[in-house]
Amino acid sequence: MHDGSSLDEFPAELRRIVGAQDWDELEDFCDRHWLALPADLAATLVAALGSIPPEVLHGRPRLVIAWLTNAHALAGPADAELRAFLRRYMEVGARMANEFDLTADVPPATLIALGTAKLVQLRGQGSLDEADELGEQLARRVDELRPLPRERSTLRPGWLALQRGLTRSLAGDLDGATALYQLAHEQARAEPLTHFAGINAAANLAMVFAHQGQQEAAARWIKTMRSYPPPMPSVAFLGTVGATIAEGWLALDRHDRDGVAAALAVTGDGTKPIEVWPFVAAMVGAAALHFGDPADGLDQLERIRISRQATAGPGIAQQVLDRARADLLIAAGQGNRALRMLRRETAAVPAWLAVPSARLHLLAGDHRQARAIAARSVWDAGTPRRDKAQLLLVHAVAALRMGDREAARGAVRMLSSVREPDEVASLATLPAAERAELLGEIELTETAAARLDHARPVFPERIDLVALTNREHRVLTELAQGHSPQEIARSLVVSVATVRSQLQSVYRKLGASNRDEAIMRTYELGLL
Fold first, then answer.
1. Are 286 and 212 in contact (CB under 8 A)?
2. Closest by alpha carbon to 357, among 372, 368, 345, 373?
């Protein structure tokens, strides 16, 4: 982590600086060591900072953050302590944010400390657009204030780029996040004493690539993260959790149940107090889809959503929760509920919902529509690599069922460009009827073939969808609320005969012979 001389000299150097009351030098000293101290030296730093006059600390936010971080290091890595630390960090950030002035003539390192504290506060409130704009403004202002090479100042290399990358990740701009994480890694790599940003950036790059199904890139960044000296235990989880998420995704792609379970044992179930929780939630949903019970998976997604009310708005959080819910509803045979959720999108189906949309049409027997959605979405720039593999497989199955074997073989041939030979998860979604025919065209390692042989079916063979008109849906809603045909007619300003005719059409589509059966079937099928 440090060279030996740096650790040996730390207490004496700290005493010298505090004794001289050189607060500028103390800030720079803390910037070099704030996330890189063993417990005994963290205690020394906390004690020294605690001896500084309060009025000095109040005007030195970098010292406050160093004190808070190292005090957490002494408290331990338990979930409760992590939750308390993050809450206190955000409280300190909120207090300092009230005094934050982007135009102030302050050292760049102070601007970064204040600005990123405010940025974290905004993210915690779910204000991702505002946080992203602040990050851009900070970067421009730091460039304006950047000191001359001979001036004494540490800029916490990579820290601002890392925080901006995390903001972009949570906003769902994974390409933008990737560029910023790479910048953070390059900046932090040059300064060994402040390498936490480099570790965190490499871990988050692995996470982003694995989330999108880019296994080779994810594995490369996991290896890069491990090339750094280990971070101090109190921040090791926060700094490396992205790589653990990546390892979970790589295990899931191989259909390695134990590997996924090992990753989730570290990351938690999506309710752990970490900002990258949406990436954990995506893995939780996928694990339930392939190895668990879809109903239990849906329950867990709801627990995650409730625990994350403030930060589950637009962005990656909404994308992964909607996607996981759609997949699990289809796996549970609740096609109408899935269709109702997918139809909430007023415009074209977004890239992250293309796979469940195409699959739902496939399982409902609408092969032409399934094929059209898959063909339209598979090469969309916003479609992740993992989804491209599944869309090609949906396209191949739909083509086979339409008697177009040449198109099916063409889709399978393209599959090699978006999946690795040891990848199993996408193949496990193939319907049994078409699996044998299509697998003959797909490259598989021996281990992958063995795992695929033991993979259970992920989705039902068929799903029955009930297609109601808007008016029929409105009549059914009124009926379920206990209204009579006469009351429904008055509400809709139509004749009672029209309502009775629409009810008969609804009964026929539901396979019901009376009101009670219709209402029962309505809730069974998820139509309301």
1. no
2. 373
Q: Name the token pair of 81.
A: 């302590």
Closest Cα partner for 38 from 4, 84, 89? Answer: 4
Q: How far apart are CA 186 and CA 437, in angstroms?
A: 48
- Cα 316–chain centre separation: 6
Q: 181 falls in which pLDDT band (50, 70, 90)?
A: very high
- CA-based end-to-end distance of the chain: 58
CA distance 503 to 517: 12
**Burial (CB count within 10 angstroms: exposed 0-12, middle 13-18, buried 19+), residue 75:** middle
Cα 378 from Cα 373, distance rounded (Å): 8
Any residues with CB less than 8 A from the CB of 469 and at least 6 apart, and which? none
Q: What is the pLDDT of residues 247-289, one digit of tens each?
A: 999 999 999 999 999 999 999 999 988 999 999 999 999 999 9
Average pLDDT, the chain: 87
As a whole number of angstroms, the distance between CA 110 and CA 131 comes to 18
Over range 492-513, report the average pLDDT.
91
Kindly report, residue by residue over 75-90, the tens digit of the pLDDT. 665 555 555 555 666 6
Q: What is the pLDDT of residues 388-433, one digit of tens each?
A: 999 999 999 999 999 999 999 999 999 999 999 999 999 999 999 8
Phi-psi region at 293: left, alpha or beta (left = phi > 0; alpha = psi -120 to 50): beta
Report the distance separating Cα 486 and Cα 431, nearest Å: 47
Token pair listed for 477: 């809603």
Write out the DSSP string of 80-116.
HHHHHHHHHHHHHHHHHHTT--TTS---HHHHHHHHH
Question: Which positions ≥6 away from 376 have C-beta within 8 Å?
Answer: none
Q: With left for phi above 0 and alpha for psi between -120 and 50, is residue 439 left, alpha or beta? A: alpha
State pLDDT tens for residues 220-250: 999 999 998 887 777 788 899 999 999 999 9
Cβ proximity of 24 and 152 under 8 Å: yes
Average pLDDT over residues 313-332: 94
DSSP string, 229-285: PPPPHHHHHHHHHHHHHHHHHHHHHTT-HHHHHHHHHHH-SS-SS-TTHHHHHHHHH
How many Å apart are CA 118 and CA 124, to the nearest integer?
10
Res 43: pLDDT: 85
State the Cα–Cα distance between residues 138 and 132, nearest whole angstrom. 10
Instruction: Identify the three-state secondary structure at position 457.
Output: coil
Q: What is the pLDDT of residue 147?
A: 59
